[in-house]
Specification:
The complex is a heterodimer of chains A (284) and B (459).
Chain A (H helix, E strand, L loop, with lengths): L1 H19 L16 H15 L5 E5 L10 H8 L9 E2 L5 H8 L9 H4 L8 H8 L3 E3 L7 E3 L12 H4 L2 E12 L6 E11 L5 E8 L7 E8 L2 H22 L3 H30 L4
Antiparallel strand pairs in A: 1-2, 3-4, 5-6, 5-8, 6-7
Chain B lengths: L10 H9 L2 H10 L2 E3 L8 H22 L7 H10 L4 H29 L7 H23 L4 H14 L6 H9 L6 H33 L22 E3 H26 L32 H9 L2 H21 L3 H19 L2 H14 L20 H22 L4 H19 L1 H4 L18
Antiparallel strand pairs in B: 1-2
Helix pairs in contact in B: 3-5, 3-10, 4-5, 5-6, 5-10, 6-7, 6-9, 7-8, 11-14, 11-15, 11-16, 12-13, 15-16
Classes of the chains: A alpha+beta (284), B mainly alpha (459).
Chain lengths: 284, 459
């Protein structure tokens, strides 16, 4: 009886593990550039130039950028376009009302977005940002003319389009299709949809005979200006690093202090352990 | 002089001792409080719980200095603490990690009580105060979780307060009364703040004092479940006892040092603990118009949350069936008034299980799972206290119970599926069955002889 229960329990645990690994759109891994000041500074420049018009980073002050090596003077001359002071918060210029009217939703504050977009035991928010900004494609059927693979039906248009250059997207979906009349499945088919650089979609469907694989979805981008697109990938990596840093500016310092704290505690533990032993050695 | 007290101490201490039981309290609770000398690893968690409690209060005080309990500013003020208050991030991480570690420590403390029978006579009140502390802690965690005003704060509170609306007749009004509004709002935030920083901590401190006083009245249990007061030396000191101070104070300092290594490692290197200590969704400000796809409570509530979700309409059939079965057994086994009373009550419960909405019974299952713990001292009929002298299959049963609790906890963090729900239902039955059938199984089997003295190996 007990053995049966234990077996059942073991089975339950393995089952739950197996089901937990479901699939969404697979995110690319963001390069780790959190320690590279030039990347962070480039990211800051891109952030202020492109993101900060509609989005805010209401928890960030401009002079917090001192931490990534920018002087107040540099901030004032290169990053402050309005009458802001270096001690001001990074506020966007879109009001809630306008945001709703223009995009259907207020562009969210980005101060901690890199933390918010992380997943439990999954990809980090940095991976999300890095992927999101690189998976826009033109689609004329959408209100903004753009859509996104990492965040379908995104309200945001591809603001950085000029930097990325034109691209084509080919989506290949392999799935079981239903028989005419809606009952049962008739077989497998592969649908290939191509969005050209202007966002016009063309689609072709082919029947698959003797297909024994699984259902799958595949996306392929084709850059029409490869130099520009690869420079853009590099820029997005910098921007992602900046937004990751911005979500918790203290994170690098935190880890540095942590090493010393743990070294001290290790020492303290040894002292406490020996102290305890010296008291207890006489206890019989 | 009337009421003049003669004391052994002189000088300032003598002056104090004549007016306040300082020396005698010090002796009674520390230097001459005899604790069994065979405490093992499990006995660190009591003092650690006290340590974390102090940590939470102290860090909490500093957080309150900078936090704004206002729906407009709450979220921003937390980020303000994280970025602009000097050392604020450290204080905040200590408090957020402390909340989770409090539950880690308290759960382990409870496991200790379960396996060594620390709730058995004469320690019933120690246990009851302890369960009271656990309840307060859950309240404290629940109210506190709303304060950062993130998406999970908001929707977690929304879900839990909505549960009260499942109570028949008074439910809907009750939940509005709790919130102070029709949805969780600024009014809710303010009252939860009051509960979190004043009401619950006051009760909590009172209960902790009662827990320790009751413990020192009857003395600590030990891994052998042997009464050390049964064997004393000529001076009346327990042979297997040892003064709490200095022996267990130095021991507990070592425990605190070990705990701090883990605690600080989390704070400095993984403060979010992969989204389990600080949920990622909670970095999005509360938005009453945008329901998150998946609302999960923080990990320490998830075993109970699983039991809540497991109680579906179908499942109340199972529970009603169990109640009917219980009624039949009670009718056959009891004598006198109980022969009729208990079965009638159980049959009534069985009928109500089908009459009232399953959502209500989910709430009852979740609450009942905790309340059940209060009755533990009167459910256990085992002739021995400690698991060391129980039959082997008892140990397996405890193992299943603990593993089941962990599985329920895991399921509570996951989005519901049919299979998960079925497992949660089985898990709920295992949890409830463990306690409800304890009067039966706890006396069965061959028990090992309990020694007169504790098992102790010199260090």
């Amino acid at each position: 009886m007990i053995k049966k229960l234990l077996c059942a329990l073991a089975l339950l645990i393995t089952c739950t593990g197996a089901i937990a690994s479901g699939g969404e759109f697979a995110l690319d891994r963001a390069p780790n550039r959190i320690n590279e000041l030039t990347s962070l500074q480039n990211g800051a420049k891109l952030f202020v130039n492109y993101c900060l018009n509609c989005h805010s980073a209401a928890s960030m002050r401009y002079n917090k950028l001192n931490d990534i090596g920018l002087t107040d003077e540099q901030i004032r001359t290169s990053l402050l376009f309005t009458g802001d002071k270096v001690g001001d918060l990074m506020m966007g210029s879109v009001s809630v009302k306008d945001g709703k009217r223009w995009f259907g939703v207020m562009p969210p504050d980005l101060s901690v977005i890199a933390r918010a977009k992380s997943a439990n035991a999954g990809p980090t928010g940095s991976d999300y940002i890095y992927t999101y900004l690189r998976t826009f494609y033109r689609d004329t059927s959408k209100p903004t003319g753009w859509d996104n693979l990492a965040y379908p039906a995104a309200a945001m248009p591809h603001v950085l389009y000029e930097r990325q250059g034109p691209r084509e997207l080919t989506t290949i979906v392999t799935h079981e299709h239903e028989a005419p009349g809606g009952k049962g499945h008739a077989g497998w088919e592969r649908v290939t949809t191509t969005y050209d650089a202007l966002g016009y979609a063309s689609s072709k469907t082919e029947k698959l005979e003797n297909y024994h694989g699984k259902a799958s979805t595949e996306h392929k981008f084709k850059a029409l200006d490869a130099t520009r697109t690869s420079a853009y990938d590099n820029d997005v990596a910098d921007l992602t690093a900046f937004m990751t840093w911005m979500s918790e500016p203290v994170q690098q310092k935190r880890k540095q202090i942590g090493v010393w704290v743990l070294l001290f505690l290790g020492l303290f533990f040894v002292v406490a352990w020996r102290l305890n032993a010296s008291f207890w050695k006489h206890v019989k | 002089m009337a009421g003049h007290k003669t004391v052994e101490t002189t000088g300032l201490l003598g002056w104090i001792d004549q007016r306040f039981p300082l020396t005698s309290s010090y002796k009674a609770h520390l230097s001459e409080y005899y604790a069994p000398k065979n405490f093992n690893f499990w006995y660190f968690f009591g003092s650690l719980a006290l340590f974390v409690l102090v940590l939470q209060i102290v860090t909490g005080i500093f957080l309150v200095m900078h936090y704004k309990p206002d729906a407009q500013f709450a979220f921003q003020s937390v980020e303000y603490i994280m970025r602009e208050v000097p050392g604020g991030w450290f204080i905040r991480y200590m408090h957020s990690t402390g909340a989770s570690m409090f539950f880690v420590v308290v759960y382990l403390h409870m496991v200790r009580a379960l396996i060594y029978g620390s709730y058995r006579k004469p320690r019933e009140l120690v246990w009851i105060f302890g369960v009271g502390i656990f309840l307060c802690l859950m309240g404290e965690a629940f109210f506190g979780y709303l304060l950062p005003w993130g998406q999970m704060s908001f929707w977690g509170a929304q879900v839990i307060v909505n549960l009260f609306s499942a109570i028949p007749f008074i439910g809907p009004e009750l939940s509005i009364w709790i919130r102070g509004d029709y949805v969780v709002s600024d009014a809710t935030l303010n009252r939860f703040f009051a509960f979190h920083v004043i009401a619950i901590p006051l009760v909590l401190l009172g209960l902790v004092a009662a827990h320790v006083i009751a413990l020192h009245e009857v003395g600590s249990n030990n891994p052998d479940g042997v009464d050390i007061k049964a064997k004393k030396d000529k001076l009346g000191r327990p042979l297997d006892g040892i003064p709490f101070h200095p022996f267990y104070t130095v021991h507990d300092i070592m425990g605190v040092a070990g705990f701090l290594i883990i605690f600080m490692a989390i704070i400095f290197f993984a403060p979010e603990m992969g989204g389990y200590f600080l949920e990622f969704n909670n970095f999005i400000p509360a938005d009453p118009l945008k329901t998150p796809l998946h609302i999960a409570p923080v990990w320490y509530f998830t075993p109970f949350y699983s039991m809540l979700r497991a109680t579906t309409d179908d499942f109340t059939w199972v529970l009603a069936g169990a109640a009917v079965l219980g009624a039949i057994v009670m009718f056959l086994r009891n004598k006198g008034l109980l022969k009729l009373l208990v079965p009638v009550v159980l049959l009534g419960v069985a009928v109500l299980l089908r009459l009232i909405d399953a959502k209500f019974w989910g709430v009852v299952a979740m609450g009942g799972a905790v309340v059940l713990l209060f009755f533990l001292p009167w459910l256990d009929y085992c002739p021995v206290k400690s698991i060391r002298y129980r039959p082997g299959w008892h140990k397996t049963l405890y193992g299943i119970f603990f593993a089941n609790f962990v599985v329920l906890g895991y399921l509570g963090t996951q989005a519901p599926t049919d299979l998960f729900n079925l497992i949660s239902q089985i898990g709920t039955l295992i949890y409830l069955g463990f306690f409800f059938l304890m009067p039966v199984w706890s006396r069965l089997g061959t028990f090992k002889p309990v020694p007169d003295r504790v098992t102790f190996h010199a260090h």
